[in-house]
Amino acid sequence: MSLPLYAKLIREEALRLGFSHVGFSKADFLEEEAPRLEKWLANNYHGKMAYMERWFDKRLDPRLLVDGAKTVISLLLNYFPAEMQQQDAPQISKYAYGRDYHDVIKEKLKELHFFIKANIGDVNGRAFVDSAPVLDRAWAKKSGLGWIGKNGNLINPKVGSFFFIAELIVDLELQPDASMSDFCGTCTRCMDACPTQAIIQPQVVDGSKCISYFTIELKENIPESYSGQFKNWTFGCDTCQDVCPWNKFSKPTNEKDFKISGEIKEWSTKDWLEITQEIFETTFKGSPLQRPGFDGLKRNIKFTLQRDGKPDL
Ligand code: SF4
Ligand code: SF4
Question: What is the Cα–Cα distance from 162 to 198, expressed in whole angstroms?
Fold first, then answer.
């Protein structure tokens, strides 16, 4: 079988599994990214996310992650929901409306790897989903799936940016795809709209100022200096994606696991305020909201709403 035929088979199977886009790049040292990552870490833009400092070499070279790696297969999985929350309620980032994406995507990647082994041969590989040692946006860009927008997200001209990025790194050689031009042009909507001015220059997000960092990653209290700036975001933040004109091309996902749960859709501010530990555990079993946990979510709700001076908070 020839290389183009391998690529065709893999693409067809990835699409069958529900991925919207698939691209290939040579598993090599990420030369362009190395100085950028170094500078970003030196500036402490990762805040207290100490795990970002680890695996520096592995992040830049997939051959250190998978023996004999030859190709990074990058895949996009749409999570844009058909239905949203009540507008006034504390807001949850759209990627977290349903089941934890790690499990959903890992299952698909396992199936894809199995398919490759069954139809192409004994291919060694490893799957990654939003995993610290892999710079997924850089690989997706290299694989021709989009460009890095000024908000730091991968933008695909056909579907916008509401998708997960995953990789299967394999020791199979495949023809790399060509990368895409940047179509942000003179637009600065995301930079202008960021509630905490975390996008400090095009494509550079100071993670330590980002609402996603405060509401998901930070274990301690959110600094009071940010009080009143979260615009109702209680878990993550989609502002810089919501304002992006390319996201008018977003279409609702077909993945039933990512659909909004009844509670997230229906709950009013009062309901969110009244969540008990028991309700949290039942409602958010297997959800990304388990990351901050019950105490973290309560902290976020209180912090987000205190701008309104609610007396009972
Ligand atoms: S996610 Fe929100 S806080 Fe973070 S950079 Fe985007 S707009 Fe700013
Ligand atoms: S909002 Fe504008 S500048 Fe920002 S990523 Fe989208 S197109 Fe690029």
Answer: 19
